[in-house]
Amino acid sequence: MRTMHLIDQAKAAKKASREILSQGGKSRTAALRDVRLALEALSGEIFEANKRDVERSAKEGVSDALLARLKFDEVKLLRVCEGIEALERKSDPIGRVLEQRSLDEGLILSRVAVPIGVIGMIFESRPDALIQMSTLCIRSGNAVILKGGSEALETNRILTRIIAEASSTQIPEGWIWLVETRGDVDNMLSLNSLIDLLVPRGSNKFVATVMKKSSIPVLGHADGICHIYLDESASVAKAIQIVLDSKMQYQAVCNAAETLLVHQNSAEILLPPIQDVLQSAGCEIRGCARTSNIIDVPQATESDWDSEYLDAIISIKVIDSIEEAIEHIHMHGSGHTDVIVSEEDQAAETFLTQVDSANVFHNCSTRFSDGFVFGLGAEIGISTSKIHARGPVGVEGLLSYKWQLRGSGQIIADYNEGRKSFTHRDL
Amino acid sequence: MRTMHLIDQAKAAKKASREILSQGGKSRTAALRDVRLALEALSGEIFEANKRDVERSAKEGVSDALLARLKFDEVKLLRVCEGIEALERKSDPIGRVLEQRSLDEGLILSRVAVPIGVIGMIFESRPDALIQMSTLCIRSGNAVILKGGSEALETNRILTRIIAEASSTQIPEGWIWLVETRGDVDNMLSLNSLIDLLVPRGSNKFVATVMKKSSIPVLGHADGICHIYLDESASVAKAIQIVLDSKMQYQAVCNAAETLLVHQNSAEILLPPIQDVLQSAGCEIRGCARTSNIIDVPQATESDWDSEYLDAIISIKVIDSIEEAIEHIHMHGSGHTDVIVSEEDQAAETFLTQVDSANVFHNCSTRFSDGFVFGLGAEIGISTSKIHARGPVGVEGLLSYKWQLRGSGQIIADYNEGRKSFTHRDL
User: Fold this and answer.
1) What is the percent of chain A where pLDDT is above 90?
2) Do residue B21 and residue A361 have CB atoms under 8 angstroms apart?
3) Taking the CB of residue B16, how many other CB atoms lie within 10 A of it?
4) Could you say which of B353, B356, B364 has the minimum Cβ distance to residue A405?
5) Which of B 227-246 lie inside 8 A of A, CB atoms?
6) How far is B186 from chain A, CA to nearest CA, in Å?
7) Which residues 191-230 of B are in CB contact (within 8 Å) with A?
8) Is A90 near chain B, with CB under 8 Å?
9) Which of B211, B386, B409 sits opposite A215 (nearest CB)?
10) Residues B90-118: b if buried by 16+ CB within 10 A, e if exposed
11) Interface membership of A407 toward B (CB under 8 Å)
């Protein structure tokens, strides 16, 4: 496996992706089960390999946070196996008829869900991501080329081997490949005739580089500069609760809040208690001049409005109107998740309609923008693109469709020359 | 208008696209009507400008085919106005709820259709395309930057002016811009923070260049190398009729057939009558060695299998099995439109399932792959990409969606810490 060149691996993946088209959903469900059972049966080997990765990485001086993500143990295995079981229970999406129309007598058009083909997935050092991504590809009928973090090298190798072998009685050989070098990543980006979609996970900068370097479509998000707008009519209790949760429940994630916009008419009531709870929770506050007139906090600079802190820091701006809030969000936001806290439905609807972001919320935390929370099952990522998929993306993000037309000898000349005419009728 | 730099035009378009979000569908319907009436009222001026374009281009020695496409007359005006009327009757797609789910009590998620934002459209010399594209953008709530062929310069200018002015009482100013130079096209491709989607129409080479040069998503097709596979069980009458229509009804289009694959067991029966009708219609035939053993035609070379002739030429290959046909299509096809002619439903379903193309047809002409034929209304183009939209693309190709979540003070901590749990329920 490992002596093959990337291009041959990609060709084998393309071939497998075509062979998958002839299989039913039952074989994919059986493959998921076989993979899950094999992971459980061979957990000792996996943990051994992972231990070597963790020890080597610790010696190389990687951070504790990265070591925590790298570590793959019983708890993480249990969690990914639960995820696989959920995919086993999910009805197979391939072949589902999305729309159907009679064009004329005996001429029936169907739009049918199909896999995308070959997915290139590039992710960080979490070995559980490799399992999640590859089993999502099994469920959606896609072949996959995986590139994991070099820290997880041995774990990724054994996981890929187990998944490939366990699925081999159900899914055509060659559907899953692991690539290991940075050079292979650059090569992946150029294989636009073999790889249909890239799913990079990692830093914003990395995702942006992938988008720039490759002409293959990319499913991935850039920044998560999320806002909470506290309207004139905001409930004080809800405002405090939502701000604290959005900022401090977990700061290192893209759906955490970074900037608070406060209507001038509610700033004097809202800012003091918000300052209290945030500072008690250990959050640094940076405010605009008007904010500093109300609460004693250091001044924010222009660059604060464009910052994704991913840390216990928040910027606060007092603004004149909901229109100014929306304008600020369009100017400085990243189109990820923005929230209005308001007791006036009219203001809420204005915000939900006019803010041009993937996720627009009323009276709840920014932290709800998540595939599992939305009920999509496993999450591939959160897209801030408007093309193909937007917001939290579930297995549907790995699907395309084709048009099937079933006729009985029809030719276009009969319709163009008036002998027949279309009688479009949705079925 | 014309003295502005492209980047300022694009910024104005982005601003307008955000303002459009606050408007209802009625204003878009009224704008379409106003545009149609203005085009009719000012047709004299349009025809004058077009006459100057045609005369200048004729002097510059452009081909008759291009002059025919460039010419804009009463007949073409009538046709585009009919198209606009159809868009006026179409229900407004913006704000449509695509799915809705209760996540918990008082926490309702909605996925809602929204415009994409700013579309960059690059098209050839047909002035009617400018009208079709800009009115599609009105219906779908998008702003648009148009680049037309230089031959149609005067016609495009007056059309853009009329459309901008007639729509100005209903749609925010700045939603439509015409750019005129090749340099502007290069600049368009780099504006990835302002332009959300590129829709290039033109030669395959041009579309491929756009895809390569820009990190903006591109909606467009590459080649149209369409196949007809005549199965072992093909009806002779249907085969003859479908081959003739697919190849000769109109050759210069992407959904015309280029290669015929004939099962070895039916080749002796099918090839002689097919040769007769194709040659009578003026079609040149190039065949593989086994074809030449049955009918007297010149030998095809390897490059014939990869050629989009767009002309009265067809290549024919005799193959051993349906599997070989599918393999040939995957090797040489462009994923556009492929047809099986067969009286066996099992073979047809195998073909429709396993051929990895945007359009897969049974017993009908390749020429049916078309947005109007499919009942999509106006067609933006035919996509051979698997991302966002595939096959004929209607107004839906210009739409995205957003997630709206309406809560009553919910925070994620309550769910993560077990005080509450999600009760996902589709509405």
Assistant:
1) 80
2) no
3) 21
4) B364
5) 235, 237-238, 241-242, 244-246
6) 16
7) 196-197, 211-212, 215, 217
8) no
9) B211
10) bebbbeeeeeebbbbeebbbbbbbbbbbb
11) yes
Distance CA A358, CA B219 (A): 21
What does CATH list as the number for B6-91+114-219+380-402? 3.40.605.10
Which residues of chain A are within 8 Å of residue B365 when distances are taken between CB atoms? 410-412
| Closest chain B C-alpha to A234 CA, distance in angstroms | 11
Distance between A360 CA and the closest CA of chain B, angstroms: 5
Establish how many alpha carbons lie within 13 A of residue B57's alpha carbon, considering only the half-sphere containing its beta carbon: 24
- Domain A6-219+380-402 and domain A226-368, same fold? Reply is no
Measured CA distances, B420 to A86, A97, A241, B278, B312 (Å): 21, 36, 15, 71, 69
Cα separation, A285 vs A312, whole angstroms: 9
pLDDT score at A210: 87
- pLDDT tens digit string along A125-157? 789 989 999 999 999 999 999 998 889 999 999
Given a cut of 80, is residue A271 above it in pLDDT?
Answer: yes
| Rounded CA Rg of chain A | 25
Provide the angle, in degrees to the nearest 10, between the axes of the packed helices B43-59 and B153-167: 160
| CATH tag, A6-219+380-402 | 3.40.605.10
Largest CA distance in chain B: 81
Q: How far apart are CA B228 and CA B361, in angstroms?
A: 9
Chain B residues whose beta carbon lies within 8 Å of the beta carbon of residue A368: 103, 107, 405, 407, 410, 412
Domain ranges of chain A: 6-219+380-402, 226-368
Query: Are the CB atoms for A256 and A247 separated by under 8 Å?
Result: yes
**B 347-376 residues with CB below 8 A of A?**
348, 350, 352-354, 356-365, 367-369, 373-375
What is the ipTM, given to two decimal places? 0.91
Q: Dig out the tokens for B415 from the structure.
A: 């769910």
| Domain B226-368 CATH (choose: 3.40.220.10, 3.40.50.300, 3.40.309.10, 3.40.190.10) | 3.40.309.10
Place of tokens 């014939």: B304
